[in-house]
Amino acid sequence: MPRLILVSNRLPVTIAKKDGTDGVEVVASAGGLATGLRGHHDKSDSLWVGWPGETAGLDEAQKKELETKLDELRCLSVHLSAEEVERYYDGFSNAILWPLFHYLIDRVPMDSSDWEVYQRVNQRFADRVAEVAEPGDMVWVQDYQLCLVPGMLRAKLPELKIGFFLHIPFPSSEIFRTLPWRDEILRGIAGSDLVGFHTFGYQRHFASSLLRLLGVEVNVDHARFQGREVRLGVFPMGIDAKAFDEQARGPAMQKRIDEVRTPHEGGGKAPRMLLGVDRLDYTKGLPRRLLSFERLLASSPELRGEVRLVQVAVPSRMHVDAYARYRKDVEELVGRINGTFGTVSWTPVQYIFRSLAQEELIALYRAADVMVVTPLRDGMNLVAKEFVASRPDEDGVLLLSELAGAAAELGEAVQVNPYDVDGVAQSMKAALEMSTEERRHRMQGLRRRVFAYDVHRWAAAFIDCLTQTPEPVVRDSSPPQGEPELIRDLANAQRERPAQPLVLLLDYDGTLVPFARAPELARPDTELIVLLSKLAARPNTQVHLVSGRPRDSLEQWLGALPIGLHAEHGFWSRLTPEQPWRAMGDENPEWKVQARSVLDAFVARTPGSRVEEKTASLAWHYRAADPEFGAIQAQELRLHLSNTFSNAPVEVLAGDKIVEVRPYGINKGVSVRLVLEASPADARIFAMGDDRTDEDMFAALPEGPGRSLSVHVGPHPSRATYRLLTWQSARTVLRSLT
What we know:
This protein is α/β, with parallel strands linked by helices.
């Protein structure tokens, strides 16, 4: 099996000075990610790259000892300064990405100067991986702090197999598009071969963002980005369920459970327990949970003294002002509820502001009657699964936010809308009143799921899927060669046969100019006019523009240049400015009237789309339409046209945000044959294009050593022998010929 390089913000260790000595102690960290990947890491020759934690307090000898111990654990450090941690981690990752990905855009600061530091630190991680990566290795990058690393690694090591897993939600494209650095984040993640999410909803949002923001071709479970296939997968993270279950059954556990279920101070029956265990983070919805509990006590006076809420709030980012204010709000609410409803012998809310050892947590899980997990938004929420795994008695009720990723798996939980304070209060009461039989039935179903898909299976599933992804090279006949290789090969050909005539066949839209949302915006700029003029003036060189544009547009824009023009994908041709335009078929064929009515109907129901009528063809453009809706409508239109004109001499062609109906047999290959007839027999043909219509041009090129050269511009599959990714690169290559 290939060696795996794990990359995470933190290494799975905790560093501390040894008491009473000058030595350094390195202890394995707890936590879902460390637990889930430690088994694979310990049993293989994998490496783990990450920040080791704060080391400023260590002297040189201690730092050297630390690196030795980390090397023994196959952990590689990325050391960060205090400023970098503050700006990359607290400043950008947690002040901007964290709230935005959790749909809390009102908490995103109005401006940030930390983007550059986030980029710089991500580059440091990528460079550290590149130092140790060997051919055949796989890299698995973890979470939102390192979104740029896959793309940066891809640029350095194109053949490396890279996976990325996002542990938090991926928001809808409408939320994500508010991020000023949205394109960079998407391009960074899309540098991966496999991108994993907790739920299908997050996967769908990511695919939608690729389509809407980058115009990337996407499907349900894969996307095509920069000539590569990027697979998208759902891998809901689990916990070490067996370990929780074993500890919950331990001989000393019952005593701890009895201590948690403390009876009234005056004796008698203990209150029933609602339990919340959360980091003190504004995404966890603690204020609304407390308001729901307050509403429960207000609306059901019979429960006063009979029920209590134990809320564990684990300190988190207390040095950040927003979190300090949040803590103050939560504690004021706790005080208000206890002041309003509490008695000498009963405290409604028992608030614990500290981290608890796992044994203490499991005792609380075992003692709880209802586990309340109501985040406003959560990538997964492993607390819900820990509670389930800690209930070998098959009792207890899980009250779960439908906005947590875990809700997609844990269907037997009582699911609630955390924003509905009254609804949560009613669900709390219903959970407390649930029959023993129903509680047991629900818990049995929950435990089956939690044990069947634990954290070890999560890790194994992702690694197995990453192993099976295609090798990260372009999987079509067009290798991912860029400007330098093509320019070098053109120069070599010129040196070998300096007198050989050269014929250039150039597409227009997407090849020489960027795509425009409207025809009038596609006019050639001055730079392109000058470039085409210089190419036409080059000795022994012919230049032909082969475009889908109408002949009137080409004549108006480029008619004054000494070049050949071929319009409407080869229907019209004019080999030189002195020659008249020549039609390759019948003008205004009968089928156009019926086809026009079909296209007009689709324009009416697809805002932003339009019909372009040419001499012998019709094109339906949807570049200005909603990307997802436009793609769906285009698929339906192609099917409708294919059925309608199945016996007519026409073909339906799908291009880049366009569906075209054209006469059968009229394509850019016709223009190539005309040009070849008028060119020297020994001429070298250089063809360049970007979409499906240009494949006809490439197919018609003459075969034989040194006879032709084809270049595809863009990421789509192609039969061309070279690839350039952008129209800017195409111009750069053409300039090299001048």
